[in-house]
Amino acid sequence: MRAEIISVGTELLLGQIVDTNAAYLAQRLAEIGVDVHFKQTVGDNATRVEEALRLAMSRADVVLMTGGLGPTEDDLTVAAVAATLGLELVYDETVADHIRRFFETRGRVPSSTVYKQALVPRGAHVIPNDRGTAPGVHIEHRGRTIFIMPGVPYEMKGMMENYVLPALRDRTGLTVIRSRVLRITGEGESAIEERIKDLLQQTEPTIAPYAKLGEVHLRLTAKGAPEEVDAALARGEAQVRERLGDLVYGIDEQTLEEVVAQALIAKNLTLAVAESCTGGLISYRLTNIPGSSTYFLEGVVAYSNEAKIRDVGVDPTLIATHGAVSAEVAEAMAGAIRRRSGAAVGLGVTGIAGPAGGNPDKPVGLVYLALAGAGGTMHRRLTFGAEAGRQGIRVLAAQAGLNLLRLHLTRA
User: Fold this and answer.
1) Residue 334 has pLDDT above 90, yes or no
2) How many Cα atoms occupy the beta-carbon half-sphere of 389 within 13 Å?
3) Helix, strand or coil for residue 63?
4) Which helix (H) or strand (E) holds 271?
5) Alpha helices for 43-201 (secondary structure H)
6) Three-state SS for 298?
7) What structural domains does the chain harbor?
8) How many CB atoms lie within 10 A of CB 316?
9) Are 33 and 172 in contact (CB under 8 A)?
10) What pLDDT score does 174 carry?
11) Please, are residues 45 and 77 in contact by the beta-carbon 8 Å criterion?
C-alpha cells in the first residue's frame, strides 16, 4: 500500500514551525507496513491544496493530510478537498453539537465562525476529535482513501491512533516495516561505502548510508511478516559487522559517550580528562549521562600553556621544546591528569581549532589525542580539514577522543 502525506500550512513553508507531524505519520505508517513514497508541504492556498491532492491521488493509494481544519479564513483544507473531488459541503449536526458541548464544559461560548468546522464533504465519514473541536474527515473516492486531520499534533495523534491506524491495519494485515540504524565512527562515508558497496545493492534488508559530523549511519530497512523482518535485519547487521568490525559502535539511538560509559562501568574503571582545543566537549558529553559520577572523576579545560602547567601538571620544558600541540604534551596531559585525579584512565587532547594559529608544520585541524592507563601511554595524531571550521574541528576532535577511549576499553 502506497501512501502520501500532505502537510498544509504557510507557517511550515516559512520555517516558523517544524513539521513534526509528517515524521510521526511516516514512522507510524511504516510500523504497519504502509510505504510512504512522497510527502508534500503546501501553504494555505486553495488552488495549491487542490493541486497537491490531485498529484497525490495520481500516485498513492492513501493520502493523509494535516492542517487547515480550524475556524479561520485560511483554514480551507476541507473545502479544497471537497472541490477537488466534486463533493458538496454539508452541515453535520453531530459535529456542531460536539463543538457546543466542548465549549460549554469549559464555561465558554463559541463564536459563529467556529461552526465552520461542522461543514464536511457529503458522504464522508467524520473522525471524532476527543481533544478539540475540528473533526477529522475520512473519504473513499474512486479507489483512493483520504484522511484529513488537524495540524495540532495532540489532536492529530489522537485521531491517528484511535481511527486511522486501526482502519489501515485491517487492510495491511501482518505486514510491517522496521528499521535498524548502525552507528559508525572512525572512517568517512566514502570509505565505508567502498567496503560494503555490494551490500548497498541488496534488498531485504535495504541498506542506506547517511553521513553526520564525525559519524556515518547505516539504516537497514525490511518489510514483511514480523518474524521475517527481524531475521532480515539481524542478517543485514551481521553482514555489515563482518565487513566493518569495530568501526560499528552502536545501534539506533545509542550514542558514543553511552558506549564509553557502559564500558567503563563494566570494567569498573574511572576516567579523568584534560582538554585543550575541545574546550570541555568530551567532559560535557560524558557527564551528560545520568550516573556519570560512578566513572568520571575529573575534567580540566587547560586552554593556555600556563593552565596546562598549573592545573594539569605538564612539565614546562615539554611545551618549550615540542610546543603545546604535540604528541609529547598530549601524553603528558593524559598521564598527569591520571596521576593527579587517581583515575584508572587519563585522556589528554590538544590541537589547533583555528581559524588562526596554524603553520605549514602544524596546520589548523591538527589534533593530538593521548591515553594513559595501567599499561602505559599512547597517542594518536589526527588532521581534520580546516574547512570543517572551528566548531567542526572541536566536535570532530571530541568524537575522536571518545572513540579512542571506546577502542581502548573494548580491546583491553
Assistant:
1) yes
2) 3
3) strand
4) strand 271-275
5) 46-57, 77-85, 93-104, 153-159, 165-172, 189-196
6) strand
7) 2-172 (3.40.980.10), 176-251 (3.30.70.2860), 256-411 (3.90.950.20)
8) 12
9) yes
10) 74
11) no
